[in-house]
Design a protein that fits this description.
alpha/beta, elongated, Rossmann fold, 2 domains
Length: 273
């Protein structure tokens, strides 16, 4: 299986980042992947007086990176490997540039303090990366304990998927973990077109089922209840222009609602509308 051969894992060496390591190690061991850990450090000034400060920051980051690598290498199995990179620049820009140029199949990152999905889409580094790359992103909420994927909720609107490539990460993880995919769709009224047939077509190779939610409950409460009822441990959505994902989290942030879903979120990128 050639999927997920190259994983990019941003780190700030925090406890939140350590949870992402657990997922990266497990996924890499299932696919025999190569993990690239990347840490970006930023200096506001380029003045000569800052050179010694930068050297110290870079040296400290290198030492922390080596300590993490020493912890992770013994845990990797089935030919998986890991390397570390320390780069200068802002986190979002550095991660995004590396992601787009390095041939990575998946980005796995902690949410830098976010405990639920609302926070992930409200100014976090994860949010910035998701908006700037064309690669799937697996975002892990803070303080979340690793669980192998068994039930994946794939929340979709009525839009189609433009190509099978957009679904590659979801299919690969579902097969590797033998996880069931529950396709969730919130009916928004008589003009709702339901789940597009392309979803069923592209999910043909994995066990999946379709679930239509009716009623007056808001999308946030309805989706939270659905994930809880089915004991999901991964939520998946598609990001595209005018997408369900863009609308739901824009609304959530502006209404300042407490969004209670606390589980890993897999963002698939799709170029279509």
């Amino acid at each position: 299986m050639r999927n997920m051969k190259n994983l990019l894992v941003p780190t700030d060496f925090s406890e939140n980042a350590a949870t992402a390591y657990d997922y990266a190690v497990d996924i890499a061991s299932r696919f025999g992947s190569h993990i690239t850990l990347v840490h970006a450090y930023h200096l506001a000034s380029t003045a000569t007086v800052m050179v010694s400060v930068e050297d110290m920051i870079k040296e400290d980051a290198g030492a922390e990176m080596n300590a993490v690598l020493a912890q992770l290498r013994p845990r990797l199995q089935h030919g998986a490997s890991v390397e570390g990179k320390v780069v200068r620049g802002d986190a979002v820009g550095s991660i995004s540039r590396l992601a787009e140029s390095g041939g990575y199949d998946l980005i796995i990152m902690g949410s830098q303090g976010a405990t639920g999905l609302k926070e992930i889409f409200s100014g976090s580094t994860a949010n910035g990366v998701i908006r700037n790359v064309n690669i799937p992103v697996l975002a892990i909420p803070a303080s979340y304990t690793f669980q192998p994927f068994s039930i994946i909720v794939f929340a979709v609107d009525e839009g189609s998927v433009s190509s099978p490539a957009s679904m590659k990460a979801l299919l690969a993880l579902s097969k590797a973990y033998n996880a069931k995919v529950r396709v969730y769709h919130k009916d928004v009224g008589e003009d709702d077109k339901g789940i597009d047939p392309t979803i069923d077509m592209f999910l043909e190779s994995v066990e999946h089922s379709f679930h239509y939610e009716l009623g007056v409950d808001g999308i946030h409460d309805s989706l939270a209840e659905f994930t809880k009822e089915y004991q999901a441990n991964l939520l998946c959505m598609i990001r595209r222009k005018r997408s369900f994902l863009e609308r739901i989290f824009h609304q959530s942030a502006t209404k300042r609602e407490v969004y209670q879903i606390q589980m890993p979120l897999l963002i698939l990128q799709d170029d279509g509308d």
